Amino acid sequence: MNNDLILLGHGSGGRLSHQLLDELIIPQLSSVPVAGQNDAALLNIGGIKLAFSTDSYVVDPVFFPGGNIGDLAINGTVNDLAMMGARPLCLSVGFILEEGFSKAELARILASMREAADAAGVAIVTGDTKVVPKGKGDRIFINTSGIGAVEHNLHIDGASAQVGDKVIVNGSIGDHGIAVLSAREGLEIDSGIQSDSAPLNGLVADLLPLGPALHVLRDPTRGGVATTLKEIALQSGVTITLDEKSLPVNPGVKGVCSILGLDPLYVANEGKLLAFVAPEQAEAALAAMRRHPLGKDAAIIGEVTETSAGKVQMETLVGGVRGVEMLAGEQLPRIC
Predict the structure, then answer these.
(1) Contact of 94 with 224, CB cutoff 8 Å
(2) What is the rounded distance in angstroms from the CA atom of residue 222 to the CA atom of residue 220?
(3) Where does the chain have alpha helices with state H?
(4) Are residues 142 and 214 in the same domain?
(5) Which residues pair with 75 in a beta bridge?
(6) What are the residue boundaries of the PurM-like C-terminal domain, all occurrences included (predicted)?
(7) Which of 1, 217, 231, 283 has the most crowded CB, counting CB atoms within 10 A?
(8) What's the start-to-end Cα distance of the chain, in Å?
(9) pLDDT tens string 75-119
(10) Strands ordered across the beta sheet of 123-132
(11) What is the domain extent for residue 271?
(12) Does residue 74 belong to any structural domain of this protein?
């Protein structure tokens, strides 16, 4: 393998992505340490606390069960802001269109973006459009950036996990990745699997009353739950222990993963969050999630068990313990 070339795996959100960031991109452009690498930057401008985030979407196909690249782009940036405990305010939208792309399909994507923005309560305030020659792009790529207001004094980030914290997820994992894969490969699976793409800012607003007991929020997108937990473990310097029997997985997703040899822990999500909550408030957090439509299947899936250099492990169904690492390579390319 030529180590001087960019591979698909560098866009996976897993180990190769982190190597690219840590060895090349961040040293050249910034000086953000591992502990500070969160879903959005926190800014203090004249005493006003803001969160700022940006993301690009290259999903293939652009239409999939449960959504399309348009609502995905809105929800993704809304969620990145929400994971910092911010109230999303406004977004920018940038399009790169390939010559020959259907205006009717673009109109459909724009309509879904407008609907998603309205559902999240955010305004689209600026943007840009470029067109590249046919064959020089892939139909449509979208970038969204967003600003949110941080209206509390809580310290919510990936470096704040504490020993004893319970790890809660708001529902079944892997739905988005398998929905996109099924559409891409033309899999005729009568399972009703749909993307879970959704804005999570309302659910986060219901968790903020937990106050200082709420330590970490993160949405497990590229690389799935496993990679996200490994990131948090490294940022916080802790060991996270999962309980395999507690992991909520849609039976259809479980079936497809079994057939294709995939692990749901590494499959992308677009409407799920992981919350690390002090043990004395874990049941209250679980109850708050379950009262919200996007959290009715919430479950406690593990806990922070000790300090360490950053370790994730899982107690398996057969009673053993296995290590859980970041996604290696690219399990499902072009998933978001």
Answers:
(1) no
(2) 7
(3) 15-20, 26-29, 69-82, 103-120, 175-185, 201-207, 224-236, 251-260, 282-291
(4) no
(5) none
(6) 162-313
(7) 217
(8) 26
(9) 999 999 999 999 999 999 999 999 999 999 999 999 999 999 999
(10) 41-45, 48-57, 140-149, 87-98, 123-132
(11) 166-323
(12) yes
